[in-house]
Design brief:
With about 290 residues, this protein is an alpha+beta fold. The protein has 10 helices and 8 strands. The strands form 3 sheets. Strands 3-2-5 form a 3-stranded antiparallel sheet. Strands 6-7-8 form a 3-stranded antiparallel sheet. It has a two-stranded antiparallel ribbon with strand order 1-4. Strand 6 and strand 7 form a beta hairpin. It is rod-shaped and about 135 Å long.
Length: about 290
Amino acid sequence: MDGQGGYQRTEPYPAQTGKTHGGDRAVEQDGDIGCCGYILMGFSILIMIMFFPFSLFCALKVVQEYERAVIFRLGRVVSGGAKGPGLFFLFPCVDSFKNVDIRTFSYDIPPQEILSRDSVTVAVDAVIYARIFDATMSIINVENAHASTKLLAATTLRNVLGTKVLSEILSDRESIAHTMQATLDEATDPWGVKVERVEVKDVRLPVQMQRAMAQEAEATRDARAKVILADGEMKASRSLKEAADIMSESPAAMQIRYLQTLNSIAAERNSTIIFPLPIDMLTQMVKK
């Protein structure tokens, strides 16, 4: 609709031409509203003149900065796309309009019971952020763009996660979110909705699965600890063997080591009583 309220032919409907995201886009008009339509418009203008200036309260409308108005004239969308923000003009008894909020809206997807590809049941919830980029398409192509997007998001979450194994669901959340966003954005494009972001909030496992995973992790840690302890024992025994070989080459080394041991025990100042015994005597007793 131009400044005088007339019609002009615009480009075909975007859903038919396959165009991508953009601003508010117009839909195809028939151009001729028929004889009855012109009679009704003349009658509307006559009413405005008769009740001027009171008729301005019905003819002038205002939409906010975050809103767009889709105007219908005798059931057809007025050319030029959605109106707003600001002031616009309506013909009484002929025009009607619907406000569309173009702000980003968020929706918390309820927890979905999903069977993963490796037959594990998990409960996953997510959140989506989307906005309406074309007010006209969101009114004409779908009954309720917000509700339809929410239902489609829940279904898409189940379909995407159903193709993943449990390890991928737990570790590749970012990749899953990008896949969901691309799928939802492609599906909601004819509705005039742009899905901006998808986030997987939480993945809840059954209690039995949590216990099994905890036992598996504990067993893995115990096995790793035993391997590390055995490796340390092997290295310690090898070092002791080398030290014994070195000390066996010099009998005096054993005496010095014995005195060092006595010195370290005496430094603790405990009540232990030490009876020094020559190592040579022990050697003779062992030989006998």
